[in-house]
Structures are given as structure tokens and as C-alpha cells.
Design goal:
The chain has about 270 residues and is mainly alpha-helical. It is built from six helices and four strands, in the order ββαααββααα. The chain has a two-stranded parallel sheet with strand order 1-2. A hairpin with a 5-residue loop joins strand 3 and strand 4 (about 200).
């Protein structure tokens, strides 16, 4: 066995059955006796370090750009006319990678790609809309449909609730229509901007911290811009209409509009 990753099979126990370790070369293999692992290879060039899978989903075993498996495969075998699981050239870089996929680019995963398909699109937005206005269990509010992955703004009143603050992060800071580079070699970062168009963003971290509190007028402007964006994607993205029930979407939008009215009322009182 060569150039393979054997990781967390057998409930984290021994990864071998009927195969002697001396018959394994240039592999990354979990060692239950050393869970921390090591990137230092043994006499057969095997390592026990975490391979750094890009996703927790076992159906997607792409590895990250800084994986210890990168360029760590057997360099002397003949890989002519071989391809990886993406049907791309098997050797890219100084040597073949350990595992099923060859690393050819850096933007391999995004923390908001919740279904591990290499896209941030209507699927993630449908998940967000289902969790809308839910609260973390044991906190006042509706715990139904709580999804901690959607709790993108974890400061202030929004820490334990999926609300407008999280929506702002999702729409303005998350790269809408982000595409993993392993899909076609291209990586598109598109997000809505306050000007009403689409711009390019490379912000990978969805959780914001230590940001100055925006003024009420800025909040209103941001929310108006978000509403325009939401109405646009509902009309122009047929997949969203297939993924989200019309009534659920209408209730979601009604609450967003109500949030705008509340902000406008607060702004009037301040003036």
C-alpha cells in the first residue's frame, strides 16, 4: 500500500487488519498510541500527523494546502497518464501527494460550505433561513431549528440568537457564490456590497470581533441593501425557490422588513 491516508477507521483503533506495517510505504496513518501524531517519517516514509482534511464530511477527503501529506508520496513511481479523484494531473509540485486528491490550489475549503460540495450558494442560504430567529437552547426564545453554524455574529445580543446581525455577516461578509478551486480551477468570491452590486471578497472568517458599533443610519442603509439583495436572489435564483418553501421565505422576509421598521423607529426617536 502506497500514497494512502488511513485515518480514524475502526473507531480510532488500529488501522490495519491482515496487513503488516512493513508493507505500507509513503502513507499517512493514524496511530492510536500517539493521537498527536508526527510529520517525521519512519523508515518506510510513513507519517502519523493529522492529514488536515478540508472538511469534516467523510464523503469529501480533499486535504488543505498546508497538509503534511502534500508532496509526501512516493516520488520514484511512474504516474504518467494517471489522474486523481478530480480527474486532474496526479503529480503537481515536487512530488505526488498522499491521498486521493492532488493539491493544486490554496482555496480548497470555506467554513460556510456546510454541505462540503465546494460551493457557498442557495443550500447554505436555505439552512440559514431555516434557523432564522431561533435561539440557543437554555436561552429565552425559540430553540426549534437552532443551528450553531448559523450563529455568525457572536457578540452582544446576537451571541445566542440567529438574527439580523448574523444576516448582515452572511450577506455582506460571506463570499456568496464562492467556489472551491478544485471544482474547475477557478475561485470566485462574490458578495453583495452596499452599492447594490457584486464585488470581490477574500474574507474567509465569518465571525467578526472588535468591530466598532455602526450608527443607526448605517444599520438602516445596510439592511436596505441586504433586502434588495435578498429580493433579487429570490427572483433570479430558481434553485432557492426549489430549496425553500414559499411560506417560510415570506415569513423570513417579513421579519427582515420588520427589523428595518424597528431600526427606522429607533432612528426617529434618536433624532
Amino acid at each position: 500500500m502506497q500514497n494512502c491516508i488511513l485515518w480514524h477507521n475502526n473507531k480510532g483503533g488500529s488501522q490495519l487488519s491482515g496487513l503488516r506495517k512493513q508493507h505500507i510505504y509513503h502513507c499517512c496513518m493514524y496511530d492510536p498510541n500517539d493521537p498527536q501524531g508526527s510529520a517525521i517519517s519512519d523508515v518506510n516514509h510513513n507519517i502519523t500527523a493529522d492529514p488536515k482534511f478540508a472538511y469534516l464530511d467523510p464523503n469529501n477527503v480533499h486535504i488543505l494546502f498546508d497538509s503534511p501529506c502534500k508532496d509526501a508520496g512516493n516520488p520514484i513511481l511512474n504516474y504518467d497518464e494517471q489522474v486523481d479523484m478530480d480527474r486532474k494531473q496526479r503529480v503537481y509540485g515536487t512530488a505526488v501527494d498522499i491521498g486521493a486528491y492532488e493539491i493544486t490550489c490554496e482555496e480548497i475549503a470555506h467554513p460556510l460550505d456546510w454541505n462540503a460540495d465546494g460551493l457557498v450558494n442557495y443550500v447554505e442560504f436555505a439552512a440559514f433561513s431555516r434557523a432564522w430567529l431561533s435561539c440557543e437552547p437554555n436561552f429565552p426564545g425559540d430553540p426549534n431549528n437552532w443551528n450553531p453554524a448559523c450563529n455568525l455574529e457572536q457578540t452582544g445580543d446576537s451571541e445566542h440568537k440567529i438574527d439580523l446581525a448574523d444576516l448582515v455577516v452572511f450577506v455582506e461578509e460571506v463570499p456568496w457564490l464562492w467556489r472551491a478551486c478544485w471544482l474547475d480551477g477557478e475561485n470566485l468570491y462574490m458578495r453583495h456590497t452596499s452599492g447594490g452590486g457584486e464585488g470581490m471578497s477574500r474574507r474567509g472568517n465569518a465571525i467578526l470581533a472588535n468591530q466598532p458599533e455602526p450608527s443607526s443610519k448605517q444599520k438602516i442603509a445596510d439592511l436596505v441593501s441586504i433586502i434588495v439583495f435578498l429580493e433579487k436572489i429570490w427572483l433570479e435564483e430558481p434553485d432557492i425557490q426549489q430549496e425553500i418553501d414559499v411560506q417560510i421565505w415570506q415569513e423570513f422576509m417579513d421579519s427582515v422588513y420588520q427589523g428595518l421598521l424597528d431600526l427606522q423607529s429607533i432612528d426617529v426617536q434618536i433624532e
